[in-house]
Amino acid sequence: MHKFAELNSAKAAQLFAAYCVAQGLEVNAVVQQPTLAELYGATEQLARIEQEFARFLQQPAHPRYQAAAWQLSQPDTQKLQDDGLPVFNWRELWRQAPLTSALLLLCLLVYLWQQVDWRSSSGALQLTEPAQLWRWFTPMLLHFSLTHLVFNLAWWLYLGRQFEQRLGLVMLLNVTLSVALISNAAQYFMVTPNFGGLSGVVYGLFGYFWIAGRLNPAQGLYISPGLVGFMLLWLLLGFFDVLWVSMANWAHLGGLLAGMGWAWLLRKHTGRGHAQ
């Protein structure tokens, strides 16, 4: 992705980006503040994007731009079931993000194993025998309630898919394993070996998106200030122990710091492709 313009209106930048997407052009609007937004476009489409941008600057109030934004905001009726519910296209997800899909499926299978044989599954995957090296990674596969599972997998799907499409499967694998190791080690040494969940990795990806959106917007990985505030508040409330659930707080903090570190290391890495 190549930065081709800045606008002093975030709404105008988002409107133009929405129009370009509707035209099949890969354009991202990265909002820094309400009065500043950066526009990035696919390098191979840059000539046409700049042509469209020049036309937009001449007539920003033209109905074509509002129409495109409205079109994108509507559900795709071809992808709805008869009852109006969206269809989850597993085949398309696997094609776009195979590692994201594989880890999601693995967590689901492990959760089923936990329901069938809790003792064996926990005994095999928790970090109770540190000499067995795989245990430094496998706690991320364990989830102790359906809410715990759904919350983590929803975040993993949201963040992991974008990361894999932008930076590739190998990079996501490296980040996932290293963040899992660091977050699990933090929880193990600070509290107990009896923990589990993908949330340390989720916090790592969140930390990556948060910092990468500031250091290298061209990667196209960005998280809104509202979600940043929610995740940081959730982390803080966990340490104050005022929530109704028991959380692996040190795993969250370790994952967050590891993900932020990865964002700094890859601050000059260029993204690829277009996140759907």
TrEMBL record:
Name the membrane topology term: Multi-pass membrane protein
**SUPFAM superfamilies xrefs:** Rhomboid-like
What Pfam family is a match, any one? Rhomboid_N
Which is a Gene Ontology cellular component entry for this protein? membrane
Ranges for domain Peptidase S54 GlpG peptidase N-terminal come to: 1-78
Q: Which Gene3D superfamilies match?
A: 3.30.70.2350, Rhomboid-like
Q: Which InterPro entries match?
A: GlpG_N_sf, Peptidase_S54_GlpG_N, Peptidase_S54_rhomboid_dom, Rhomboid-like_sf, Rhomboid_protease_GlpG, Rhomboid_protease_S54
Know the name of this protein? GlpG protein
Q: What organism is recorded for this protein?
A: Rheinheimera pacifica
